[in-house]
Amino acid sequence: MAPTRSEIESLVIRIQQVFLSGHTVRLTLNQIARRADASVGLCKAVLRVLVDARVLAQTPRGVYERFLPHTARASRSAA
């Protein structure tokens, strides 16, 4: 059964709250799914949208963290 719009909205809010609770929160997809009490597949879809919207960033190793523009610029200029 497909999730409803309100279930997806609730999941988006739960995921955002996890990352807003601390500046240095870094979690894998599986950790986020456990904390949000949601399926990995649904979390992956929501995370993709949050990364595209630059709310979160994903590292090359698949770890998710808050998107911080000044950190992204510093990383690029150091490379």
Short description, anyone?
59% of the residues lie in helices and 10% in strands.
**What is the assigned CATH homologous superfamily?**
Winged helix-like DNA-binding domain superfamily/Winged helix DNA-binding domain
Order of helices and strands: HEHHEEH
Q: Helical content, roughly?
A: 55-70%
Q: How would you sum up the global shape?
A: globular
Structural class: mainly alpha
Count of domain modules: 1
Topology overview:
Layout: H1 5-20, E1 26-27, H2 29-36, H3 40-52, E2 56-58, E3 64-66, H4 69-78
Antiparallel strand pairs: 1-3, 2-3
Helix pairs in contact: 1-3, 2-3
Outline the structure in words.
This protein has a single domain, classed as Winged helix-like DNA-binding domain superfamily/Winged helix DNA-binding domain (Arc Repressor Mutant, subunit A), CATH 1.10.10. A hairpin with a 5-residue loop joins β2 (about 55-60) and β3 (about 65). The longest helix is centred in the first third of the chain and has 16 residues, at about 5-20. It contains four helices and three strands; from the N terminus they run αβααββα. Residues about 75-79 have low confidence and may be disordered. By secondary structure, the chain is mostly helical. It has helices spanning about 5-20, 30-35, 40-50, 70-79; strands spanning about 25, 55-60, 65.
